Amino acid sequence: MDYSLYLGQLKYLIPEAIVLVFALAAMIVHLFAKINGRRAAGILSIIGLVAAGISLIYSPLAAGEIYSETLSVDQFALYFKIIFLISGILAILLSFKFFDVEKSEPGEAYYLILLSIVGMMFAVSSVDFISFYVSFELFAILSYILAGIFKKDKRSAEAGVKYFILGTLSSALMVLGMAILVGVSGSTTYTEIAAMLADGNSKIELTGMLLLFSGLFFKLALAPFHMWTPDVYEGAPTPLVVFLSTAPKAAVFAVIIRMIYVMFGGFEMQWQIIFQVIAVITMFWGNIAALTQKNIKRMMAYSSIAHAGYIMMGLAAFGTKGNMAMMFYLFVYLFMNAAAFGLILLVQKNNGFGEYIDDMRGFARKSPLMAGGIIVLLLSLTGIPPTAGFMGKYFLFTAVVEKGMYVLAVIGALNSVISLFYYFQIGRAMFMEEAGVVEIIKDKSYYARSVITVSVIVILVIGILPGTLTKFASLSSLIK
Amino acid sequence: MINYWYFFLFFIITIAFSIGFLLFVALIRFKRNVHDDKTFPYECGVDPVTPTARDTYSIRYYLLTLVFIIFDVETVFLFPWAVINDQLGWFGLIEVFIFILILIFGYIYAWKAEALEFRREIG
Q1: Could you tell me if the ipTM is greater than 0.90?
Q2: Which has the least CB within 10 A, A246, A318, A387, B50?
Q3: Residue B48 to residue A143: CA distance in whole angstroms
Q4: What CATH class does B58-123 carry?
Q5: Residues of chain B contacting residue A2, judged by C-beta atoms under 8 Å apart
């Protein structure tokens, strides 16, 4: 084997290297800074993410698979890497505000976000079980730590432990599935496994695939595997939930798309039915459970389950259109989630944050502009024009209809109607109810406000002019 | 079998060294000093035999062990590189140095987070 090529192939990994170097630099800054100088680590992290984004635009794409067919640096991976970087920037900006109000700053959060982004960037490029699993565990283990980063806070610690125990259990299932597939095919590379799987519909291969997908579905919080979501999202620090509910999900969806495309093409009959059933259960479960929630974080957790169900419809309608719809929706969902969780950071209650719907009463009178932005956000989450959420659902439904799955499309539309009820409980509390004791946190820094404003502008712009993102997503959705 | 002669050489040197070292120590040691702690089997600082299972031990011992395992596993990853170092060339050397560098950052973290302090003042 010729290893001399390897040195030259390092140039494809420059964005990952930049994120890693800045993460280590932020760690040193955090360790040696005084207690009130930890903000520097966060600023350094944001600079690192922006630098990685710039290098991502200019770095070359590899024509084939690099490093002994373990990584594939293509346009598809690039699209998801951009999602991770944006998610990290938004989460760190919201963290600044959160840590200011909580008056304690666990600076580890900044560089743990960066390190888990490195894991995700490798995971979406992986075309080999070993490189996939190592990078998957890198971001999975870091997400458990991020959920429990306030270790003195009971709720945060509980969220971390719950997430850790259930997460490792699902990882074990996933490894079992991978072991079966590797045992059947005798290789860890996707393409070589595909060559062995293509000819048969044997039960053992199907079992391996199902176990593998179960582990991945856990990370996506799809219906039979979603039980951890409300508890973790409620207990974990709000800005980190923005990160945990967007970036890992996008990464796992990307991994599943690549696996189906390369490995499980022969099992289309089987996974299509599984994905359809899971999409339906997930949408209903998420939306109906969200109806009765009083806590906005819990409600958004169930809403994120429902959104994973919508995106799952795109996976059931796998193809150029379905992939494009999923990728479009994941990009939009990132901004919707950042704004929705940012809303919680605006309202004060008992020296903490107002997490309940009732805490939002009279919000519109105190801050009419922000309330208007939130209404746009709620429209987008429900899927009403002229917002990006509508465009995302439009692409998903057309992809599903084109594959002839009319029932699935009808159920998706029905669920959008159900979601209107609970999203607009927030709107009703803000506009229609008696002015309560809502107190908007005054700060000079405007971190949460600017994140919400930017997100709402992005949602509106994509909703009115979806052309650029559509073109970029459909260009990226082709895996060569 | 002839190809394995150096293995037996290794075997002989090992035995010779062990016996030779013990003899050497026997020659130069001063006074025979028998003590309870000296005859006790060594088990990383934890008593291997206790009258009951309900014994107290320091929880910080496990923190140190975790740090130890991380750097122990590092060695495991160095072996595959060492075996085919001649084929990998410069690439392998650079990669291994990056790998060790990242672990050194982990070491700095453990140090600053006081994971290596066995007696920490609680206050």
Answers
A1: no
A2: B50
A3: 38
A4: mainly alpha
A5: none
